Amino acid sequence: MSTDVAALERLMVEWVERWIEGEAHTPVDATTNLSHTGLLDSMAVVGLISYLEEQADAEFDFATYDPLSGVSVQSLIKHCVG
């Protein structure tokens, strides 16, 4: 099955925008560093990953993901669905 990455990015950015409820002072897109900007805390990142798994019908491998360089919608999708 082929994943429409652009559509997935849009869905996930919309999820982030709903989560932060307009509180961001920076526009959010697929490349926004969600962790370093403070837009999402660790629990919100887990929620976003859960949403990604649901939408992509794929499993996220937490053991091999390194969030130290930051977490973005794009990096999460790349890690989960390639």
Entry summary:
With 82 residues, the protein is mostly helical.
Verbal overview:
The protein is an all-alpha fold and 82 residues long. The chain has three helices and no strands. It has helices at 5-20, 42-56, 73-81.
Q: How many separate helices?
A: 3
Extract low-pLDDT stretches: none
Into which percent range does the helicity of residues fall? 40-55%
Structural class: mainly alpha
Largest sheet: none
Features:
82 residues; 0% strand; mainly alpha
Topology overview:
Elements: H1 5-20, H2 42-56, H3 73-81
